[in-house]
Amino acid sequence: MKQKRWLVIAVLALATVLPACGGTTAATATPTRATASSAGSTVTVAITPTPTARVSPTAAAHSLTASATAPVSTASDELQVTGLVQHTGPLTVAAAQQISQESVEVTFQSSKGTEQHRYTGVRLWDVLQRFGLQLDANRKNDQLRKYVVVTGRDGYEVVVGLGEIDPNFGARPILLAWEEDGAPLAGERGPFRLVVPGDVRGGRYVTGVVKIEVRDIDSPPRR
User: pTM for this one?
Assistant: First the structure.
């Protein structure tokens, strides 16, 4: 009996050691059996390896990639109207759509070659009327002394003279567009693009407009 007891203890010890020596064990490992015998007696003990969780390298890589490439929105959904207007503030696409809407088809030259697009937006002149121009009634045609600086998200700036867009003078349908070829301007290209029908080259087609500032020839230097 004493010898049999020692055999049982030895087998149990073997059951403990075997999983440790076997390396990584899959979660579905099949139970094994250890058998020892002495003096005609047989002792059999079932050995069930403890499952070891295994993470697929592909799943781990996918998790890391998804985390690293998660989109981060940095684009603002509005532009700021500043300068010589009666009240300054933001302009969103929703607000611009309440002012007026029209579409134009344009062709212009760019670094990509000849581009043709259809844009939908609001006239720059109508936006300025909504915010109210500061005009000096004592100056003849004071609006002709004023201009708009249009700034893009990347800091690119262009100028539009008020005489170009005033219905009583140039009457050009220069737009702040929110749609190009039927698709909303989004991300770094949105929410607005300046569209200047009639310009041969697209240098004034500012994308990602974030600010329009009204100035005149007496305005102090910009810093």
Answer: 0.66
